[in-house]
Each structure stands twice: as structure tokens, then as C-alpha cells.
Amino acid sequence: MDDSPRRPAHTTDLERRGPGGPDTALDLAALSPDLAQRLSAIGGEFQQLTLEYDFAMREVETKLRILQDEFLHLHDYNPIEHLATRMKSLDSLVAKAKRRGLPLDLDVWRQEITDIAGTRVTCSFRRDVYRLFELFTDRPDVELVQVKDYIAHPKTNGYTSLHATVRVPVYLSTGMVRIPVEIQFRTIAMDFWASLDHKIKYKYDGEVPADVAGELKEAAQSALDLDRRMERLHDRVHGDGGPTLLV
Ligand code: GTP
Ligand code: MG
Questions:
Q1: Which of 51, 61, 79, 229 is the most buried (most CB within 10 A)?
Q2: pTM of the prediction?
């Protein structure tokens, strides 16, 4: 994906990156008649939901772009390498609801599923990850709902990233609603690891052989080493802490 700071990135899925708007395609014919009937009944409601979550995601993206522009303006430093957004498709929402034993009820999904709208922020360095997270969530119009710090506490498979669920206000003709958006902050090395991990899982359909899983975990350590090394190098060239700490 192009990393020019001003280019809006809108992708349909964080893992299957491609152009386009919300991906709502679902093969109704492949579902049981009962499920298909209930889904077509909630079609209009789903479009409204998609619209609201899309607005929220765009709000988040704009706020992040403003932060990025401010860094560029004040310090001639760009802390964001890539920014991608994606809306969960109806089929993956149905699959997630099924997995979690939730009914086919959009009000329940609104309450229980907080990653319908997702944004991924790929940063240059680990400290940019935390700095952007803090600056973004310090804003009074951003409500921090949940943080999962998989950088401080990596998953057992080696996955690292900082996940934040926030709620942002969206102003509709009917009034204001607060919509959740899941934001994943990570470095380029973490992102590289995560995309490879995703491809490997996809290939093995979730059942990754132990030796492959072992190598992946070692690769996660190499990604961490690389992050630290690049950060040290950056500090050597630009001075300790770099421009990110001046804000
Ligand atoms: P889901 O949202 O259902 O996935 O479960 P959860 O709420 O426990 O999710 P968590 O916050 O741990 O992770 C949510 C998202 O983070 C996933 O959809 C992925 O995009 C990413 N993620 C989490 N764990 C991994 C992992 O092991 N590998 C990769 N590649 N991505 C991961
Ligand atoms: Mg989740």
C-alpha cells in the first residue's frame, strides 16, 4: 500500500487488502433457508449499521491523519508508515456471531462485536506506537473502551501489536451515536510478521504444524530484535529519543 501521508486508504479487509468500500457480499443461496430469510429481513438495518461504522472509521482515520500532519509540520517526522481501514463483511460478522453463540440480531452485534470497523496503524518504531496511541486516546472526543497490549504481553505464538477499542461520536440527522472502532497499532516488523503468520494459518487452515509454529515464534523474536536495532540506529543518527518525544 502506498505510504504517502495524505492518501486515504480504504480497504475491505485488513488481511485481504484491496480497494473498494465495505464488503457486504454474502451468498444467501448457500445458507439455510431460515438463516437466509432472517438475513434478508435485516438487510436494510445492516446497511444503516455499515454506514454508521464507516463514518466512525473515517473519523478515526481523519484524526490520525491530522496527528500525522502535525508531526510532519512540527518535526519534519512521519511516525506512520501505513494506515489501513476495513469494514467487517456481513459473512464474517455472521461467522463471528455463530462462533460466539450470538443471535442474528444487529442490536446484539452492536453491543457485543467491537471490531466491525477496524483501523491499522503501522508505525516506524515501537515508541511511535505508544506515542500515537497516547496522543490519539487523550483526545476528549475519543473514548477508550479497551486496550490489549500484545507488545508488552505477546501472544504465545509470538503475535505483537497494541490493540485499542475506542468509541467516537458520529453525528447523524437523527442525533449523535457513539460507534466503536478497533485500532491496531504496530511497527513495520510486527506487521511483516503478522501478515506472514496470517498466510501460514490460512494455508494450514488453522492447524499449523509444530515445527512451523516454532520457526514463526523465532521469527517474532527476530522481528523484535530488528525493531530494537533500527530504533538504536535511529537514535544514533538523530539523537536519543528522536523527534517523536518532542511533541
Ligand atoms: P477476534 O476479534 O475474534 O479475532 O478475537 P479477539 O477479540 O480475542 O481478538 P484479538 O484482540 O486478540 O485480535 C483481533 C485481531 O488481531 C485479529 O482479527 C487479527 O487481525 C489480529 N490478531 C490477533 N491475534 C493474531 C495472530 O496470532 N496472528 C495474526 N496474524 N493476527 C492476529
Ligand atoms: Mg476482537
A1: 79
A2: 0.85
